[in-house]
Design brief:
With about 350 residues, this protein is an alpha/beta fold. The protein has three domains: about 110 residues, Rossmann fold; about 90 residues, 3-Layer(aba) Sandwich (Rossmann fold); about 100 residues, Rossmann fold (3-Layer(aba) Sandwich), CATH 3.40.50. It contains 15 helices and 14 strands. α13 links the parallel β13 and β14. The chain binds iron/sulfur cluster.
């Protein structure tokens, strides 16, 4: 196996007429207006570095619009692996940039602010997973892609929200499964597969967990004809199934979708029912892409406070600073990367990886 550098590559600082950044009261890089001169400078610096800019669907609209590609975490990592660019600038959270590094070990991966973490990925550490495994010898570990490289390295098969059910269904019926870290996605998988031997870690994303069932029921009652797009990580996902089951919400209105599947579904609504309304239960950044994909459909958030503060650390000033200074670099130990890559590749071999969050 080829050995890959884990040590940071020191990129030279580039000159720019725009000041890199100041820091606001919340500690975010600030002080830059995302106007045309900012956009032109970002593009110029990216060309000088031979860098590709990737933006997750939950990023600020101006970051999504300046990026070369916008999408979900796994889809972006696969684009990163295929590009000829020397440098990948991942506008998202840290585990996503790590996944890009795992799949592209020979490339330099930068994140505009390395403090962009993830409460879901932080729900389980590699040490906690090792201990859980030791309590259930022989169990198969299935981890959502929203995990650190260290956790992926301790994982048998990764999954996304698109294929979590297929991944679990591919494992022999009598084999115990340790599913982590998201309890809502785990409950969805258990319900869909009907398997009692899926043990679920009690992790959650604080943003998705706050989109709750009461709020969903109220919004669905206010807009009786609106379709509901729900990410299975949401706290309301179980409630949506329950409310549909007992007839409070018509089951045909409820669509459990990954972020990538939401865009496909949005285009279908635009064709079949333009001028209709869709209530969206996921992080509010997703609305920008949905409105671009289907401009005649009215998309509204189930909870307009569902904004990920980690994602929003990637500001226009942070992106500019990243390009000028060539930082923050994301590295993964080569041994960890190889084991983590194997768990991602096992998932891809099962098919339909979609993109997860
Ligand atoms: S929305 Fe939740 S799962 Fe997604 S990056 Fe933010 S904290 Fe993590």
């Amino acid at each position: 196996m080829a050995s890959h550098p884990a040590a940071p590559v020191s990129l030279p600082r580039l000159d720019s007429p725009l000041a890199a950044s100041v820091v606001d009261s919340d500690g975010r890089y600030d002080g830059i207006v995302p106007d045309e001169s900012w956009a032109a400078e970002v593009k110029r610096l990216a060309r000088e570095r031979n860098a590709v800019i990737l933006a997750h669907n939950y990023q600020l609209p101006e970051i999504q619009d300046i990026a070369d590609y916008t999408g979900d975490s796994l889809g972006l990592s696969r684009i990163a692996a295929e590009t000829d660019a020397d440098v990948i600038i991942f506008c998202g959270v840290h585990f996503m940039a790590e996944t890009a590094k795992i799949l592209s070990p020979e490339k330099t991966v930068l994140i505009p602010d390395e403090r962009a973490g993830c409460s879901l990925a932080d729900s389980i550490t590699a040490e906690e997973l090792k201990e859980w495994k030791s309590e259930h010898p022989g169990a198969v570990v299935v981890s959502y892609v929203n995990t650190t490289a260290d956790v992926k390295a301790e994982t048998d098969i990764c999954c996304t929200s698109s294929n979590a059910v297929d991944v679990v269904a591919s494992i022999p019926e009598d084999q115990e499964i340790l599913f982590n870290p998201d309890q809502f996605l785990g409950a969805h998988v258990r319900r869909k597969t009907g398997r009692a031997n899926v043990r679920v870690w009690a992790g959650e994303c604080h943003v998705h967990a706050n989109i709750n069932g009461d709020e969903l029921a109220r919004r669905a009652a206010e807009d009786e004809n609106a379709e509901l797009f729900i990410h299975p990580e949401c706290g309301c996902a179980n409630s949506a199934i329950y409310l549909a089951g007992e007839g409070t919400i018509e089951p045909e209105r409820v669509h459990m979708l990954s972020t990538g599947e939401m865009l496909t579904a949005a285009r279908k609504v635009e064709e079949s029912k333009p001028s209709s309304k869709v209530l969206v239960a996921t992080e509010v950044g997703m609305l920008h892409q949905l409105r671009k994909a289907a401009p005649d459909v009215a998309f509204e958030p189930v909870n307009d406070r569902a904004s990920c503060s980690y994602m929003k650390l990637i500001t226009p000033a942070a992106l500019l600073r990243c390009l000028i200074e060539g930082s923050d670099e994301v590295t993964v130990d080569p041994d960890v990367a190889a084991r983590a890559r194997a768990s991602v590749e096992r998932m891809i071999a099962i098919g339909n990886p979609g993109g997860g969050e």
